[in-house]
Amino acid sequence: MSVHELPVLPAVERDAFRNAMACLGAAVNIITTDGPAGRAGFTASAVCSVTDSPPTLLVCLNRSASVWPIFRDNGYLCVNTLAAGHEELSTLFGGKTPMADRFAAADWHTLASGSPLLDGALVSFDCKVAQVVSVGTHDILFCEVHALVRNDETHGLAWFDRGYHHLLRQDAR
Ligand SMILES: NC(=O)C1=CN([C@@H]2O[C@H](COP(=O)(O)OP(=O)(O)OC[C@H]3O[C@@H](n4cnc5c(N)ncnc54)[C@H](O)[C@@H]3O)[C@@H](O)[C@H]2O)C=CC1
Ligand SMILES: Cc1cc2nc3c(=O)[nH]c(=O)nc-3n(C[C@H](O)[C@H](O)[C@H](O)COP(=O)(O)O)c2cc1C
């Protein structure tokens, strides 16, 4: 049997990787949870669809974030995709602000899972965390979607080139 030698590839610097990732436009989301471990929320652009059967999305959360143990212990969360105009809220949930101040800046409803739904979000996904996989510094939370709330009147918000950009719906252009 022949042994196939795998190529040894060079490492990419962390900053070069981040500069490259800044070229990828992404939706901006506030991920929330509330339960026995308490209430928490953080801004995340590392969110994407995994499969529609069962409806599942993933959220990548840095294990060094202050909110990490709260999400680990509650096991339920809501992905609130931000709309145009939510830039300040996104920055507030982007770190280093006390949790009470983050939540005081907007209006919320409680979902079946107990997680806070952001009033005026473009769309909200109420989820149960079905599986967690650790890769490097982050946990990948695979989230089964159990309820949806859409707000079809608002425009979208994207994070691109380290700044916010409004995404207008077709009929508004
Ligand atoms: N996946 C993540 O954990 C992300 C974290 N952030 C955090 O938000 C702050 C501002 O970010 P930017 O202004 O976009 O500038 P930045 O230079 O820190 O990041 C540029 C891009 O690299 C990626 N990135 C940043 N930190 C990462 C991490 N720890 N792991 C994996 N990918 C990462 C993201 O795609 C980000 O948009 C930073 O503290 C950054 O660490 C931002 C986006 C994603
Ligand atoms: C635009 C933006 C996108 C972010 N995306 C992520 C992400 O996908 N995953 C993540 O772990 N942190 C992300 N962060 C950083 C977290 O929001 C931040 O670490 C979190 O609020 C916890 O901060 P704390 O430890 O000060 O509480 C992002 C920040 C910003 C401003």
Q: Which labels suit this protein?
A:
4 helices, binds 1,4-dihydronicotinamide adenine dinucleotide, alpha+beta, Split_barrel_FMN-bd, three-stranded antiparallel sheet, Flavin_Rdtase-like_dom, NAD, FMN, oxidoreductase, seven-stranded antiparallel sheet, 12 strands
Q: Can you walk through the features of this model?
A:
The chain has 173 residues and is an alpha+beta fold. It is built from 4 helices and 12 strands; from the N terminus they run H-E-E-E-E-E-H-E-H-H-E-E-E-E-E-E. The chain has a single domain (27-160), classed as Electron Transport, Fmn-binding Protein, Chain A (Pnp Oxidase, Chain A), CATH 2.30.110.10. The longest helix is centred in the N-terminal third of the chain and has 8 residues, at 14-21. The mean pLDDT is 96. Residues 28, 42-46, 60-62, 65-67, 90, 93-96, 159 line the site of flavin mononucleotide.
How do the strands and helices of this protein lay out in sequence?
Blueprint: H1 14-21, E1 26-27, E2 29-35, E3 38-44, E4 47-52, E5 55-62, H2 68-74, E6 76-81, H3 87-92, H4 99-104, E7 108-110, E8 116-118, E9 123-135, E10 138-150, E11 156-160, E12 163-167
Antiparallel strand pairs: 1-11, 2-3, 2-6, 4-5, 5-10, 6-9, 7-8, 9-10, 11-12
The structure holds 1,4-dihydronicotinamide adenine dinucleotide and flavin mononucleotide.
Pfam families: Flavin_Reduct (PF01613)
Function: Catalyzes the reduction of FMN to FMNH2 which is used to reduce pyrimidine by RutA via the Rut pathway.
Catalytic activity: FMNH2 + NAD(+) = FMN + NADH + 2 H(+)
